[in-house]
Fold these 2 entries.
Entry 1:
Amino acid sequence: MGAVGALLLFVSVLIHELAHSLLAKRNGLRVRQIVLFIFGGVSELEDDPGDSSVEFKVAVVGPLTSFAIAAILWVLWNSLILVRTDVVYLAVLQYGSFINLILGGFNLIPAFPMDGGRVFRSVIWRRRRDKYTATRIASRVGVGFAYVFIGFGLLIAFTGNFIGGIWLVFIGWFLRNGSESGLMQATISEALGKTRVGDVMTTSIHTVKPGSTLKEVIDDYLLVYKHGGYPVVLEGKFLGMITLDDVKRVRKEKWTETHTQDVMTPVEKIVSVGRGVHASEALVLMSKRSIGRLPVLENGNLVGIISRSDLMKIINLKTELMK
Ligand SMILES: [Zn+2]
């Protein structure tokens, strides 16, 4: 009964997430994947909803689906009671109905980025006509709820139900991180807006020759310009990138005899962007791969460099102005 109940919960969460994903797709949003993990599931959208009514629909359909599953299982459970079915089946159906009711109800708590928090954000967004303000308010409420969960969890943990309490603490912690990263994402896309890579890239680039020794790279570049990485170019042709990390992988005694071309990341392995890419996308790309800079290429030619620290400076400046 336990195994079947667990499977039923798993399938219920999956259907809940599929409902989010299907509605998102129907509204023209791309869905990257559905991730099921220990605290539940997440439908990862490729792009954020562009208007408040889409956000509302995509968020609210999850809990509604859970309520619908709860209702179906409830009807099934009660009809089987009438025909005096074995308690083994009844108990599983009752559990399934109950757990879906909890699933729908819990997700409706207005704690961004949970479903209820997204519904809440869409309502403020609609009223204020400003997504960023709505996200700020919803995130703050979300963080508030997270601390309520953590506090309540600790209380329960030390007054009897240790496992249940700690569980709630973890959910609170997870929620807090979600709220804050949601706010950060909103801040980034608000600050960078429609800015393209071409608008903010550096075009005065210091390039390294493939034949330069690491000693030369250190003395003539790393210590002089203080950037962490440089494009390697020979006769106008972009060959790769060399970074401080590449240099550090080689022992100090070998610096005078090792050449850039031997340790650089070759062009085939390099992630690059075009001028027309949104600056926020470039930033996400750099964060995901934990790299500090991207070469900007046009028809294979190097036209600029965009760095994470440059983008962070713009974001800091803009957020100061937005306050
Ligand atoms: Zn949901």
Note: DSSP finds twelve helices and seven strands in the chain.
Entry 2:
Amino acid sequence: METFEILFVDDDRTILNLVKEYLTNEGYNLTCVDSGLGAIELMKHSNFQIVFTDLKMPGLSGIELLRRIKEGRPGTEVILITGHGTIESAVKSLKLGCYDFLQKPIKLERLKVLIDRIIEQKKLLDENILLKKRLNERYKYDNLIGAHPKMQEIYRIIDRISLSSPTVLIQGESGTGKELLANIIHKNSDRKEKPFIPVNCGAIAEGLLESELFGHVKGSFTGAFKDTIGLFRAADGGAIFLDEITEIRPYLQVKLLRVIQEKKIRPVGDTKEYKINVRLIAASNRDLDEAMMNGKLRKDLFYRLNVVSIKMPSLIEIKDDITLLINHFIQKFNAASKKKIEGITPETLGALINYHWPGNIRQLENVIERAFALGVDKKITINDLPPEIGKLSKNSITDGISYSLRTNEIALIKKVLFKTNGNKTEAAQLLGINLATLYRKIKKYKLAEKPLQNANKYESQFAFLHNS
Ligand SMILES: Nc1ncnc2c1ncn2[C@@H]1O[C@H](COP(=O)(O)OP(=O)(O)OP(=O)(O)O)[C@@H](O)[C@H]1O
Ligand SMILES: [Mg+2]
């Protein structure tokens, strides 16, 4: 209620005092002033959402005040108070956009009812605007699916960097879509006609990565039967996606850094250098701070790569998108298979939503693909899920209440953080654990540091906790 500011204008100070005492006691944020001109002055500095004004006042009349308010701030609701109400002034003020009338003597309860109604309507309006804004938000960018704000932020970054093609470093757990994103970044850049070459640095034998990337001349090492230009030159004008960068040996990291800085490469065993024009997109599913501390990633290379940094959220973080993703994968596999399926049963959807997805979106995709492979009837059911996920759901009863300790622990922590507005000391007290334990759990479950807007969504899961 404190965000709603109310102004009361009347030349009768007795009325002002009465109203002020009543509404302030009721918890409203009220300012009083005894003239129309005084009101105009106050409105220059405050954002009143509701103005009550007496009709007859010396100087500026209530009708004139109403007219000026509606010209300057049409969103402010004005209620006229009249002791000498005539039909004409009523009609005139309604035409000017007056919200309602109050007859003197003022009934204080009626004031409260009116204010509450306006506040309620304004809130609904705000929610509606928010909802419309949400509907305008994208739920996908090419094949990258997700409506969560974290995904929206990623879509905005793809747009922003599409013209300048800077180096990008993508971090995120395994299966969160790093390679998919790298591909989309390339497809949305002005290099899109040129090659996109993914290199999994962890999958290429240690000694071979250098010649794979930079090429070699015939005879430069055993097995080098002919000259090879290497992936950097093969990607000329396009992009190289260096995946699992922490798997590159430190000596090669130094070479890579030089290549990035000088935009030239020297193939293994060659004396010549070649100019290259390649965009770099790098990725890792490791904690890079830790990797730098352990010497697995050179700091200077990290800073060179980390021009634009994108963190892919884990599936748990964007849980609200699971339904979207499931539909996307069903469509994808429907398109590729002769037998089409209709969807998924609510119970199965519930089981998938409750699962903790260590393998993220890749694991979810595999679960749907597996169901198709095993032959789903019309809809995917619990029996079509891998045993470890299906079994979990048998522990939950079908009314949506989870008996999983982990799920309830996550939900409870989120709820308490929401309740304490993110204050962790208070939250730890409420939870009956010490602060360090709470921090550990927040880290373990990757919970948002700020209180979640949608924490009440977890409310339903608490029926179980409340009742016990
Ligand atoms: N947001 C998404 N929308 C649709 N499909 C996705 C999304 N994220 C991931 N996928 C799909 O999940 C699978 C795994 O994605 P990808 O290979 O890009 O993950 P990754 O982060 O590179 O994983 P890893 O670290 O294990 O290499 C791919 O088939 C990809 O198409
Ligand atoms: Mg990958």
Note: The chain has 20 helices and 16 strands.
